[in-house]
Amino acid sequence: MIYRGTSGHLHELSLSAKDPANRHWHHTNLTSLLAQPVARCAPSVTVVDNAPHIVYVDHTSRARELWFDGEWRHHPLTFAPRPASNVVISSTPAAFHVSYRTMFGVPCEQTFSREAAANGQRNWSHRIFHRLPAQGQPFGFNADVKRRIVFRVAEKWFFREPFVFRWHARRQPGYREYEGSRNRLVQA
């Protein structure tokens, strides 16, 4: 079990022995062990091939990854765009996906190939979805072999810098004006 303590440190709590007569709980402070910054919100965990992969947002709004492959390791995710919400990790047969709302208010997902992970590489890439201002926590999933993200459109949109929506995107090829109502769920 992975949890965030009251001081922001991430902790692992696990049963240590396979022999039922000798089982006892083992506690590890992961942020202290790995000399990582404390978390500002709850971590998100996925388990792939019996190895936990944890992502969290630290007190500087930077997303970080912890994983166990015989020993605990760590790596920062792509520096920008920074998350304004919690981060949620999920996995597919091909990749790890971390979805969140950016500080600019739009849904984003960072992706990392499982093949690259097997080769010891940590090259995360990001993708902004739909450029609509979001509120709350976006969530990503796969359906019909396509990656999708669901989020709630914000009620209020910014029209002045630094958070300008609508005008700059019109110059992009294939641009479509969003005609739906605000404060509703959107799948992109």
Description of the structure:
By secondary structure, this protein is mostly beta strands. It has one domain. Helices cover 5% and strands 43% of the residues. The chain has 2 helices and 14 strands. The chain has helices at 30-33, 114-118, and strands spanning 2-4, 10-15, 25-29, 44-48, 51-57, 63-68, 72-76, 88-91, 95-101, 107-113, 125-128, 134-143, 146-153, 185-187. The strands form 4 sheets. The chain has a 4-stranded antiparallel beta sheet, with no helix packed on it. The protein is elongated. The two termini are 32 Å apart. The mean pLDDT is 82.
Q: What's the gist of this structure?
A:
This protein is mainly beta and 188 residues long.
Using brief descriptors, characterize the structure shown:
single chain; 188 residues; mainly beta; four-stranded antiparallel sheet; 2 helices; elongated
C-alpha Rg, in Å? Answer: 19 Å
* Fraction of residues in H or I helices: under 10%
Could you tell me how far the N terminus lies from the C terminus, measured between alpha carbons in angstroms?
32 Å
> Would you identify the regions where 5 or more consecutive residues have pLDDT less than 50?
none
Characterize the biggest β-sheet. Answer: 4 strands, antiparallel
User: Total helix count?
Assistant: 2
Number of domains: 1
Order of helices and strands: EEEHEEEEEEEHEEEE
User: How would you sum up the global shape?
Assistant: elongated
- Count of individual beta strands: 14
Strand content: 35-45%
Oligomer: single chain
Question: Which whole number gives the mean pLDDT?
Answer: 82
How does the helix and strand content classify structurally?
mainly beta
Query: What is the topology, as strand order, of the major beta sheet?
Result: 4-5-6-7
